[in-house]
Amino acid sequence: MKFFEQIAQSIVEQTSTVLDVSMSITDANGIIIGCSSVERIGSYHVVTKEVTKAGRSIIFTKEKVADRVNVLPGVATPIRFQQQIIGVLGIIGEPDEVGRYVEFVRNHVEMMLRESFRTESFYIQMKTTELFIQHLIHFKEWDNEGTLHNYCEMSGFHFDQPRLCILIDIPSLHKPKEEENKPVRISQYDLFQMISNFFEDHSEDIISPINPKQWIVLKYMEGYDADKLRHQCERAVKGLKNFLQNNKIPGKVSIAYGKSHEGLAGVSRSYHQALQTLTTGKQSKAEACIYAFDDWSILLNTLIKEINPAFSETLNDYIEKLLSQPNASVLIETFLVYCEQGLNVSQAARRLYVHRNTLLYRLNQLNQIFTIDTQSFEQCMLLYLALKQNKKVEQWAQMI
């Protein structure tokens, strides 16, 4: 058993330090794979076959081992895993002294083996799930569905019901290149448990990492409950932030989700909605950290990004003229806020902390530059969309 060989020395070191006893572990073939005396690792331990055959503990006194090579006084006992003897534990010392530890130490070693096996199995399953998810979220309707359907059947997942994609973004989990050799302070197992506690309420919910800083939840939706989903996201953000702080990795946690869709292609669609929502939400200056695809502010920004660039090009001359003004930044901010306040002069003035007359003066300047009627919703909407899509204006907005 490969994982047994990989963890045997670690088990010996942890256990012998805690209990202050010397010990060794052999595999089923009698090769020492863990030992307090590291120079013995890799050597053959002749008593393994004897203990394995007996299926019980055997005491080895000084007299009994006097003529045996590489055998020390103590007690040797079989190590069992899944009802099979996979090796032998040797506790080294006077049998009368170390004998009282045998059962306790063996139980401790077998418990660590089971825990290590569970963890190892988790990581193997997680890797398989992650690969499946990568194929799923990038699925196109013309793709070969055979492999995905086979995995779904094997795993018991069904995609004939709507599923909704939730993306959890934790940038602080992504270690810079210069820190790659530093030990990881949070395991995927711990994160999986945390995220499962917040979101898993159906056996077909799928949870997996998709890159070093993002996790995905594919929720099985029997009925869409917006308030419940929002509450789950709020709890998750709060809980994950506390979890990061407790592990001394402070940082922002953002969650975005798309709409629910049926079928394999529907999962991909929901994922791309969630990804677009996350990107748009993080680019906004709002303090919010939960973003829904059908939120009106998200939809507006999504619409702006989807508009054909040819649209804004028709107003480029006007925008260039505006950008050439000495107070261009003031005029742009004023107009955007004015639009976002529903063309209400008083509300916009309060939001900008300026006098109402100051705002009217600025709007009059815009009237002269664009020959625009700033009381017309249609005209203001066109200019608003053009400004929001213009790259130069976007760069300016990011600087303020």
TrEMBL record:
Domain CdaR GGDEF-like: 147-279
Domain annotation Putative sugar diacid recognition: ranges: 5-136
Superkingdom: Bacteria
Database matches in Pfam families: Diacid_rec, GGDEF_2, HTH_30
Gene3D superfamilies: PucR C-terminal helix-turn-helix domain
Residue stretches making up the PucR C-terminal helix-turn-helix domain: 331-388
Family of this protein: Belongs to the CdaR family.
Protein name: Carbohydrate diacid regulator
Originating organism: Bacillus aerolatus
